[in-house]
């Protein structure tokens, strides 16, 4: 069975559009890498216009609202948006698909954030289209910061029992019958391509079907779309240089800007 036989974006959207998952995400804080990026690149969004892609339950909203002049968070999960609107009644949250952001028009935002590997929820063609749309909605000098699933991660493409850590919760998830049910159901849709892979991911007891790409290939993908790389960060927030070992990073982070425009 080929991976193209499933709508990856629809599958992942349904996974996150659940009340219990929305409430759980609403209690989560920034990741170490996100805190580092928002501090280092505060100048790129402070007093400016920011678009938060796949905002979910507003996990990143609280850290951004005090600084930005115009904040817009978008998501398609109604359960997530309900939590975000309850937590931040003064913020703007729109029921909008990430793939439809070109509706905002050219140059609408100064900073676009794609936290929690939101681009990994789409297939290859959709991912490239979203990246092109991000560039379109950015103003001259606009910055795009996002995280993505790392194909070079030592556990990428693994199965339950290949726990991410020895934390008790991870062990329980790995041996839980539902993890194996989900993994075996989704495994036929996984695939390996030259530049990327679609893997079943440990998220929510192996319910995710996500796009994985290595750092160098992701940079080439961005440069081909008209972006210039500004910074790279590992999952723990450490700065990365091209060619660094990322085998322990489940997620990687890039910050880039429109090529040919000023900082």
UniProtKB/TrEMBL annotation:
CDD domains: AdoMet_MTases (cd02440)
Record keyword Acetylation present: no
GO biological process: methylation
Residue stretches making up the Methyltransferase domain: 51-142
Record has Transferase as a keyword: yes
The species this protein was found in: Bosea lupini
Taxon lineage: Bacteria, Pseudomonadati, Pseudomonadota, Alphaproteobacteria, Hyphomicrobiales
GO molecular function, one term: methyltransferase activity
Keywords attached to this entry: Methyltransferase, Transferase
The protein's name in its UniProt record: Methyltransferase domain-containing protein
Pfam families, sorted: Methyltransf_25 (PF13649)
């Amino acid at each position: 069975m080929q991976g193209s036989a499933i709508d990856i974006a629809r599958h992942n959207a349904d996974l996150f559009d659940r009340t219990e998952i929305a409430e759980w995400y609403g209690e989560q804080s920034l990741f170490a890498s996100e805190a580092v990026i928002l501090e280092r690149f505060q100048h790129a969004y402070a007093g400016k216009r920011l678009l938060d892609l796949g905002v979910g339950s507003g996990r990143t909203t609280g850290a951004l609202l005090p600084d930005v002049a115009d904040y817009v968070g978008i998501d398609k999960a109604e359960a997530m948006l309900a939590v975000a609107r309850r937590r931040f009644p003064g913020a703007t949250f729109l029921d909008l698909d990430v793939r439809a952001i070109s509706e905002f028009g050219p140059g609408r935002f100064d900073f676009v954030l794609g936290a929690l590997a939101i681009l990994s929820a789409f297939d290859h063609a959709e991912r490239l289209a979203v990246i092109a749309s991000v560039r379109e909605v950015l103003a001259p000098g606009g910055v795009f910061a996002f995280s993505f699933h790392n194909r070079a991660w030592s556990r990428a493409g693994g199965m339950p029992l290949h726990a991410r850590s020895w934390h008790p919760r991870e062990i329980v998830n790995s041996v839980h019958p539902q993890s194996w049910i989900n993994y075996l159901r989704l495994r036929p849709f996984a695939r390996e391509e030259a530049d990327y892979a679609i893997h079943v991911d440990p998220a929510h007891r192996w319910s995710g079907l996500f796009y994985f790409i290595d750092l160098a290939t992701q940079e080439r993908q961005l440069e081909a779309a008209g972006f210039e790389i500004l910074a790279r960060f590992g999952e723990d927030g450490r700065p990365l240089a091209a060619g660094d070992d990322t085998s322990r990073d489940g997620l990687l982070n890039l910050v880039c800007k429109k090529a040919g425009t000023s900082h």
